[in-house]
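User: I'm putting together notes for a lab meeting next week and I want to include a structural view of one of the chains we've been expressing. I don't have a solved structure, so I'd like a prediction I can at least talk through. The sequence is below, exactly as it appears in our construct file.
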Amino acid sequence: MNSTLIGIVLEAAAFLELSPDDVVAPDAAVAQLEDMTANLHALPAAELDQVVAYIRGRAASDPDPARRAFFSSFADGLEA
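Assistant: Thanks for the context. Below is the predicted structure for the 80-residue chain, given as structure tokens.
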């Protein structure tokens, strides 16, 4: 797993989720987040497990409560 690339994906996902509606259109954000999730689900199981572990680590260490909650939720969605 390339932690730099997954970090970029995670930051983009957080931006889409946490930006106000006047910055990112809600329907567009949801569509893009669903696409990101679908593409990540296409990874081999072992790689997806590494991605989820990375995201959970970021959730545990981020100082922002909203970002921590989003990262945890995003990881949960990838495990489903």
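A couple of points you could mention at the meeting. The chain has a mean pLDDT of 96. The CA atoms of residues 11 and 76 lie 16 Å apart.

User: Perfect, that's what I needed.
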